[in-house]
Design brief:
The chain has 391 residues and is an alpha/beta fold. It has twelve helices and 15 strands.
Protein backbone atom coordinates (compact mmCIF):
# COMPACT_ATOMS: atom_id res chain seq x y z
CA UNK A 1 0.00 0.00 0.00
CA UNK A 2 2.10 2.88 -1.29
CA UNK A 3 0.77 6.36 -1.96
CA UNK A 4 0.98 6.22 -5.76
CA UNK A 5 0.10 2.58 -6.28
CA UNK A 6 -3.47 1.44 -6.89
CA UNK A 7 -4.82 -1.53 -4.95
CA UNK A 8 -8.18 -3.22 -4.56
CA UNK A 9 -10.45 -2.28 -1.67
CA UNK A 10 -13.95 -3.12 -0.53
CA UNK A 11 -16.64 -0.77 0.72
CA UNK A 12 -19.32 -2.43 2.85
CA UNK A 13 -22.90 -1.16 2.97
CA UNK A 14 -26.45 -2.23 3.84
CA UNK A 15 -28.57 -4.57 1.78
CA UNK A 16 -30.47 -2.53 -0.80
CA UNK A 17 -27.87 0.24 -1.08
CA UNK A 18 -25.31 -1.54 -3.28
CA UNK A 19 -26.12 0.34 -6.50
CA UNK A 20 -26.17 3.69 -4.69
CA UNK A 21 -22.72 2.91 -3.29
CA UNK A 22 -21.42 1.91 -6.74
CA UNK A 23 -22.64 5.24 -8.15
CA UNK A 24 -21.00 7.15 -5.31
CA UNK A 25 -17.69 5.37 -5.85
CA UNK A 26 -17.68 6.08 -9.59
CA UNK A 27 -18.54 9.76 -9.05
CA UNK A 28 -15.70 10.02 -6.53
CA UNK A 29 -13.25 8.62 -9.08
CA UNK A 30 -12.86 4.94 -8.11
CA UNK A 31 -11.62 2.51 -10.77
CA UNK A 32 -12.88 -0.99 -11.66
CA UNK A 33 -15.96 -0.70 -9.43
CA UNK A 34 -17.89 -3.95 -9.04
CA UNK A 35 -21.03 -4.46 -6.92
CA UNK A 36 -21.13 -7.38 -4.48
CA UNK A 37 -23.68 -8.37 -1.87
CA UNK A 38 -23.80 -5.59 0.74
CA UNK A 39 -20.87 -3.79 -0.77
CA UNK A 40 -18.67 -2.97 -3.74
CA UNK A 41 -15.04 -3.60 -4.66
CA UNK A 42 -12.91 -0.94 -6.36
CA UNK A 43 -9.36 0.23 -7.03
CA UNK A 44 -7.59 3.36 -5.86
CA UNK A 45 -4.44 4.60 -4.14
CA UNK A 46 -3.81 5.65 -0.54
CA UNK A 47 -5.20 9.11 -1.20
CA UNK A 48 -8.39 7.65 -2.63
CA UNK A 49 -8.78 5.47 0.48
CA UNK A 50 -8.69 8.65 2.57
CA UNK A 51 -11.25 10.28 0.24
CA UNK A 52 -13.53 7.24 0.36
CA UNK A 53 -13.66 7.39 4.15
CA UNK A 54 -14.35 11.13 4.08
CA UNK A 55 -16.88 11.27 1.25
CA UNK A 56 -18.87 8.04 0.92
CA UNK A 57 -22.33 8.56 2.42
CA UNK A 58 -23.55 4.99 1.98
CA UNK A 59 -20.44 3.04 3.05
CA UNK A 60 -20.13 1.44 6.49
CA UNK A 61 -16.46 0.45 6.22
CA UNK A 62 -13.58 0.57 3.77
CA UNK A 63 -11.55 -2.65 3.90
CA UNK A 64 -8.08 -3.12 2.40
CA UNK A 65 -7.31 -6.83 1.76
CA UNK A 66 -3.70 -7.67 2.64
CA UNK A 67 -3.73 -11.43 2.10
CA UNK A 68 -5.99 -14.02 0.47
CA UNK A 69 -5.38 -17.75 0.84
CA UNK A 70 -6.99 -21.16 1.13
CA UNK A 71 -7.07 -23.05 4.43
CA UNK A 72 -8.63 -26.38 5.40
CA UNK A 73 -8.54 -25.87 9.16
CA UNK A 74 -7.86 -23.34 11.91
CA UNK A 75 -4.20 -24.35 12.28
CA UNK A 76 -3.56 -23.47 8.63
CA UNK A 77 -5.29 -20.13 9.17
CA UNK A 78 -3.12 -19.46 12.22
CA UNK A 79 0.09 -20.24 10.31
CA UNK A 80 -0.78 -18.13 7.26
CA UNK A 81 -1.93 -15.18 9.35
CA UNK A 82 1.30 -15.38 11.36
CA UNK A 83 3.29 -15.23 8.11
CA UNK A 84 1.96 -11.71 7.43
CA UNK A 85 4.48 -8.98 8.30
CA UNK A 86 2.17 -7.24 10.78
CA UNK A 87 5.04 -5.28 12.33
CA UNK A 88 5.37 -3.40 9.02
CA UNK A 89 1.69 -2.40 9.07
CA UNK A 90 1.30 -0.99 12.58
CA UNK A 91 3.23 -0.44 15.79
CA UNK A 92 3.36 -2.97 18.63
CA UNK A 93 1.97 -0.34 21.03
CA UNK A 94 -1.32 -0.08 19.14
CA UNK A 95 -4.44 -1.80 20.47
CA UNK A 96 -6.20 -4.27 18.16
CA UNK A 97 -9.43 -6.16 17.62
CA UNK A 98 -10.30 -8.89 15.10
CA UNK A 99 -13.73 -9.07 13.43
CA UNK A 100 -14.55 -12.41 11.77
CA UNK A 101 -17.32 -13.40 9.37
CA UNK A 102 -17.70 -17.12 8.59
CA UNK A 103 -19.63 -18.95 5.87
CA UNK A 104 -18.09 -22.42 6.25
CA UNK A 105 -19.31 -25.66 7.81
CA UNK A 106 -15.94 -26.58 9.33
CA UNK A 107 -15.92 -23.41 11.49
CA UNK A 108 -18.89 -22.57 13.66
CA UNK A 109 -17.63 -20.08 16.21
CA UNK A 110 -16.61 -16.58 15.07
CA UNK A 111 -15.29 -15.53 18.49
CA UNK A 112 -12.98 -18.54 18.65
CA UNK A 113 -11.67 -17.84 15.15
CA UNK A 114 -11.12 -14.18 16.03
CA UNK A 115 -9.12 -15.36 19.04
CA UNK A 116 -7.06 -17.68 16.85
CA UNK A 117 -6.22 -14.88 14.40
CA UNK A 118 -5.40 -12.53 17.28
CA UNK A 119 -3.02 -15.17 18.72
CA UNK A 120 -1.24 -15.42 15.37
CA UNK A 121 -0.79 -11.64 15.20
CA UNK A 122 0.50 -11.17 18.76
CA UNK A 123 2.76 -14.23 18.51
CA UNK A 124 4.30 -12.71 15.37
CA UNK A 125 4.90 -9.42 17.17
CA UNK A 126 6.37 -11.17 20.21
CA UNK A 127 8.84 -13.10 18.04
CA UNK A 128 9.84 -10.08 15.92
CA UNK A 129 9.86 -7.29 18.51
CA UNK A 130 9.88 -8.90 21.94
CA UNK A 131 6.50 -7.45 22.91
CA UNK A 132 2.93 -7.54 21.63
CA UNK A 133 -0.08 -5.29 21.01
CA UNK A 134 -2.97 -5.36 23.48
CA UNK A 135 -6.61 -6.13 22.68
CA UNK A 136 -9.28 -3.45 23.02
CA UNK A 137 -12.76 -4.56 21.95
CA UNK A 138 -14.43 -1.18 22.56
CA UNK A 139 -12.16 1.44 21.01
CA UNK A 140 -9.18 -0.21 19.28
CA UNK A 141 -6.54 1.61 17.28
CA UNK A 142 -6.44 -1.16 14.67
CA UNK A 143 -9.32 -3.27 13.30
CA UNK A 144 -8.54 -6.45 11.37
CA UNK A 145 -11.27 -8.07 9.29
CA UNK A 146 -11.29 -11.80 8.52
CA UNK A 147 -13.75 -13.23 5.97
CA UNK A 148 -14.00 -17.02 5.59
CA UNK A 149 -16.04 -18.64 2.81
CA UNK A 150 -15.59 -22.42 2.67
CA UNK A 151 -11.78 -22.79 2.35
CA UNK A 152 -11.21 -19.23 1.12
CA UNK A 153 -9.87 -16.68 3.60
CA UNK A 154 -9.47 -12.91 3.11
CA UNK A 155 -7.59 -10.94 5.76
CA UNK A 156 -8.07 -7.16 5.56
CA UNK A 157 -7.15 -4.01 7.39
CA UNK A 158 -10.25 -1.98 8.26
CA UNK A 159 -9.30 1.57 7.33
CA UNK A 160 -12.39 3.13 8.92
CA UNK A 161 -12.27 1.88 12.50
CA UNK A 162 -15.68 2.70 13.93
CA UNK A 163 -18.48 2.21 11.41
CA UNK A 164 -18.79 5.18 9.05
CA UNK A 165 -22.43 5.66 10.07
CA UNK A 166 -20.99 7.20 13.26
CA UNK A 167 -20.60 10.60 11.65
CA UNK A 168 -19.72 12.41 14.86
CA UNK A 169 -22.59 14.93 14.90
CA UNK A 170 -25.19 12.91 16.80
CA UNK A 171 -25.15 13.95 20.45
CA UNK A 172 -28.71 12.82 21.23
CA UNK A 173 -30.80 9.90 19.98
CA UNK A 174 -34.56 9.37 19.91
CA UNK A 175 -36.16 5.93 20.37
CA UNK A 176 -35.17 3.68 17.43
CA UNK A 177 -33.21 6.34 15.46
CA UNK A 178 -32.54 5.58 11.81
CA UNK A 179 -28.96 4.70 10.89
CA UNK A 180 -27.14 7.63 9.24
CA UNK A 181 -25.91 5.51 6.30
CA UNK A 182 -29.43 4.20 5.71
CA UNK A 183 -30.85 7.74 5.90
CA UNK A 184 -28.30 8.98 3.34
CA UNK A 185 -28.99 5.97 1.12
CA UNK A 186 -32.74 6.61 1.21
CA UNK A 187 -32.19 10.25 0.27
CA UNK A 188 -29.97 9.15 -2.62
CA UNK A 189 -32.56 6.59 -3.78
CA UNK A 190 -35.21 9.30 -3.57
CA UNK A 191 -33.12 11.49 -5.86
CA UNK A 192 -32.52 14.25 -3.30
CA UNK A 193 -30.12 16.76 -4.83
CA UNK A 194 -30.94 20.00 -3.00
CA UNK A 195 -33.07 21.39 -5.85
CA UNK A 196 -36.19 21.79 -3.75
CA UNK A 197 -37.42 21.74 -0.18
CA UNK A 198 -36.94 18.76 2.13
CA UNK A 199 -39.42 17.95 4.89
CA UNK A 200 -39.38 15.27 7.59
CA UNK A 201 -42.76 15.49 9.32
CA UNK A 202 -41.77 12.92 12.00
CA UNK A 203 -38.17 14.03 12.36
CA UNK A 204 -37.16 12.32 15.62
CA UNK A 205 -33.51 13.14 16.30
CA UNK A 206 -33.13 14.83 12.88
CA UNK A 207 -31.04 12.33 10.92
CA UNK A 208 -32.81 12.74 7.56
CA UNK A 209 -32.61 16.53 7.91
CA UNK A 210 -28.90 16.63 8.70
CA UNK A 211 -27.95 14.08 6.02
CA UNK A 212 -30.11 15.97 3.54
CA UNK A 213 -28.47 19.28 4.43
CA UNK A 214 -24.98 17.79 4.00
CA UNK A 215 -25.94 16.43 0.56
CA UNK A 216 -27.47 19.76 -0.48
CA UNK A 217 -24.36 21.69 0.59
CA UNK A 218 -21.93 19.00 -0.68
CA UNK A 219 -20.37 18.59 2.77
CA UNK A 220 -18.46 15.30 3.29
CA UNK A 221 -20.16 13.05 5.88
CA UNK A 222 -16.81 12.23 7.53
CA UNK A 223 -15.94 15.85 8.26
CA UNK A 224 -17.01 15.65 11.94
CA UNK A 225 -15.21 12.40 12.72
CA UNK A 226 -12.13 12.71 14.88
CA UNK A 227 -10.69 9.27 14.18
CA UNK A 228 -10.19 6.88 11.30
CA UNK A 229 -8.23 3.67 11.83
CA UNK A 230 -5.88 4.43 8.90
CA UNK A 231 -4.42 7.28 11.00
CA UNK A 232 -2.90 4.57 13.22
CA UNK A 233 -1.19 2.70 10.35
CA UNK A 234 2.57 2.97 9.87
CA UNK A 235 2.14 4.36 6.35
CA UNK A 236 -0.30 7.15 7.32
CA UNK A 237 0.51 10.27 5.30
CA UNK A 238 -0.74 13.14 7.45
CA UNK A 239 0.27 15.80 4.95
CA UNK A 240 -1.72 14.11 2.17
CA UNK A 241 -4.74 13.54 4.41
CA UNK A 242 -4.76 17.18 5.59
CA UNK A 243 -4.57 18.34 1.98
CA UNK A 244 -7.56 16.17 0.97
CA UNK A 245 -9.52 17.21 4.07
CA UNK A 246 -9.02 20.90 3.38
CA UNK A 247 -9.92 20.47 -0.30
CA UNK A 248 -13.13 18.69 0.76
CA UNK A 249 -14.15 21.70 2.83
CA UNK A 250 -13.68 23.96 -0.20
CA UNK A 251 -16.30 22.05 -2.20
CA UNK A 252 -19.29 23.33 -0.18
CA UNK A 253 -22.21 24.57 -2.33
CA UNK A 254 -25.01 27.06 -1.70
CA UNK A 255 -28.56 25.86 -1.05
CA UNK A 256 -31.55 28.04 -1.91
CA UNK A 257 -34.54 26.09 -0.59
CA UNK A 258 -35.68 25.00 2.86
CA UNK A 259 -35.12 21.98 5.11
CA UNK A 260 -37.89 21.54 7.68
CA UNK A 261 -38.37 19.09 10.51
CA UNK A 262 -41.50 18.57 12.59
CA UNK A 263 -42.33 16.42 15.58
CA UNK A 264 -45.19 16.49 18.07
CA UNK A 265 -42.96 15.75 21.07
CA UNK A 266 -41.04 18.81 22.35
CA UNK A 267 -38.53 16.55 24.14
CA UNK A 268 -37.69 14.89 20.84
CA UNK A 269 -37.28 18.27 19.17
CA UNK A 270 -34.73 19.24 21.82
CA UNK A 271 -32.66 16.23 20.79
CA UNK A 272 -33.00 17.14 17.12
CA UNK A 273 -31.90 20.71 17.85
CA UNK A 274 -28.86 19.44 19.71
CA UNK A 275 -27.84 17.25 16.75
CA UNK A 276 -28.51 20.00 14.21
CA UNK A 277 -26.36 22.39 16.23
CA UNK A 278 -23.58 19.80 16.52
CA UNK A 279 -23.68 19.40 12.71
CA UNK A 280 -23.40 23.20 12.30
CA UNK A 281 -26.72 23.24 10.43
CA UNK A 282 -28.80 25.57 12.62
CA UNK A 283 -29.22 28.10 9.80
CA UNK A 284 -30.11 25.45 7.22
CA UNK A 285 -32.50 23.22 9.19
CA UNK A 286 -35.69 24.66 10.68
CA UNK A 287 -37.48 22.73 13.42
CA UNK A 288 -41.02 23.17 14.68
CA UNK A 289 -43.51 21.38 16.93
CA UNK A 290 -46.37 19.93 14.86
CA UNK A 291 -48.53 16.80 14.91
CA UNK A 292 -48.51 15.17 11.48
CA UNK A 293 -51.99 13.75 12.07
CA UNK A 294 -53.36 17.30 12.41
CA UNK A 295 -50.67 19.14 10.52
CA UNK A 296 -50.33 22.88 10.98
CA UNK A 297 -47.19 24.90 10.34
CA UNK A 298 -46.41 28.56 10.83
CA UNK A 299 -43.98 28.32 7.93
CA UNK A 300 -44.69 28.69 4.25
CA UNK A 301 -43.23 25.49 2.82
CA UNK A 302 -41.72 26.14 -0.60
CA UNK A 303 -42.50 23.89 -3.53
CA UNK A 304 -41.35 21.78 -5.27
CA UNK A 305 -40.58 19.61 -2.31
CA UNK A 306 -39.90 16.13 -1.00
CA UNK A 307 -41.07 14.45 2.19
CA UNK A 308 -38.89 11.70 3.67
CA UNK A 309 -39.87 10.06 6.95
CA UNK A 310 -39.61 7.00 9.14
CA UNK A 311 -42.92 6.43 10.99
CA UNK A 312 -43.35 4.03 13.94
CA UNK A 313 -43.58 0.37 12.95
CA UNK A 314 -45.22 -0.93 16.11
CA UNK A 315 -42.05 -2.92 16.90
CA UNK A 316 -39.90 -0.57 19.01
CA UNK A 317 -42.52 2.19 19.34
CA UNK A 318 -46.05 1.35 20.42
CA UNK A 319 -48.71 2.63 18.02
CA UNK A 320 -52.15 1.79 16.65
CA UNK A 321 -50.79 0.85 13.24
CA UNK A 322 -53.99 0.90 11.12
CA UNK A 323 -55.08 4.24 12.60
CA UNK A 324 -51.59 5.76 12.32
CA UNK A 325 -51.06 4.83 8.68
CA UNK A 326 -54.60 5.82 7.71
CA UNK A 327 -53.86 9.21 9.25
CA UNK A 328 -50.57 9.43 7.34
CA UNK A 329 -52.38 8.88 4.06
CA UNK A 330 -55.08 11.44 4.91
CA UNK A 331 -52.50 14.11 5.82
CA UNK A 332 -50.45 13.48 2.69
CA UNK A 333 -53.52 13.89 0.49
CA UNK A 334 -54.85 16.92 2.37
CA UNK A 335 -51.73 18.99 3.08
CA UNK A 336 -48.96 17.95 0.69
CA UNK A 337 -50.43 17.96 -2.80
CA UNK A 338 -47.67 18.64 -5.29
CA UNK A 339 -45.00 16.95 -3.19
CA UNK A 340 -43.29 13.58 -3.53
CA UNK A 341 -43.35 11.52 -0.32
CA UNK A 342 -40.92 8.73 0.58
CA UNK A 343 -41.55 6.56 3.63
CA UNK A 344 -39.57 3.64 5.01
CA UNK A 345 -41.50 1.11 7.04
CA UNK A 346 -41.41 -2.53 8.05
CA UNK A 347 -45.17 -2.67 8.63
CA UNK A 348 -47.04 -4.59 5.93
CA UNK A 349 -50.21 -3.93 7.87
CA UNK A 350 -49.56 -0.21 7.92
CA UNK A 351 -49.04 0.01 4.15
CA UNK A 352 -52.48 -1.52 3.59
CA UNK A 353 -54.11 1.40 5.40
CA UNK A 354 -52.34 4.39 3.81
CA UNK A 355 -55.02 4.65 1.12
CA UNK A 356 -52.52 5.67 -1.57
CA UNK A 357 -50.94 3.53 -4.25
CA UNK A 358 -47.13 3.75 -4.20
CA UNK A 359 -45.38 4.48 -7.50
CA UNK A 360 -42.26 2.69 -6.19
CA UNK A 361 -41.66 0.05 -3.54
CA UNK A 362 -38.01 -0.80 -2.83
CA UNK A 363 -37.13 -3.74 -0.50
CA UNK A 364 -34.62 -2.80 2.22
CA UNK A 365 -33.30 -3.93 5.58
CA UNK A 366 -33.61 -1.53 8.52
CA UNK A 367 -31.53 -2.96 11.35
CA UNK A 368 -32.68 -6.58 11.27
CA UNK A 369 -36.17 -5.77 9.97
CA UNK A 370 -37.39 -6.48 6.46
CA UNK A 371 -38.60 -3.09 5.27
CA UNK A 372 -39.84 -1.19 2.23
CA UNK A 373 -39.07 2.27 0.94
CA UNK A 374 -42.28 3.46 -0.74
CA UNK A 375 -42.86 6.52 -2.90
CA UNK A 376 -46.14 8.39 -3.20
CA UNK A 377 -46.64 11.01 -5.92
CA UNK A 378 -49.08 13.51 -4.45
CA UNK A 379 -50.70 15.19 -7.42
CA UNK A 380 -52.36 18.59 -7.31
CA UNK A 381 -56.00 17.54 -7.57
CA UNK A 382 -56.90 13.97 -8.46
CA UNK A 383 -54.85 11.70 -10.68
CA UNK A 384 -57.76 11.59 -13.10
CA UNK A 385 -57.88 15.39 -13.30
CA UNK A 386 -54.14 15.54 -13.87
CA UNK A 387 -54.38 13.06 -16.74
CA UNK A 388 -57.28 14.95 -18.30
CA UNK A 389 -55.38 18.23 -18.01
CA UNK A 390 -52.37 16.66 -19.71
CA UNK A 391 -54.49 15.35 -22.52
Amino acid sequence: MTENKNFRMMAKTMQGLEEVLVKELRQLGAMDVEPVKRGATFKGDIGFMYKANLWLRTALRILVPIKEFKARNEDEIYKKVKDIAWEELFDKNRTIVVDTTIYAQQYNHTLYMSQKVKDAIVDRFREKTGSRPSVDTKNPDIRIDVYIYNENVIVSMDSSGNSLHKRGYRTEADVAPINEVLAAGILKLAGWDGLGSLIDPMCGSGTFLIEGAMIAHNIPPGVFRKDFAFKNWNNFDKELYDLLFNKALEKEKNFYYGIYGFDKDPRVLLKARSNVKSALMTEQVKLEKADFMNFRSSRELKRPGMLVFNPPYGVKIEADIPELYRGIGDTLKRDFAGYTAWMITSSREGLKHVGLRPSQKIPMINGSLESWLVRYDLYEGSRKAKKQGGE
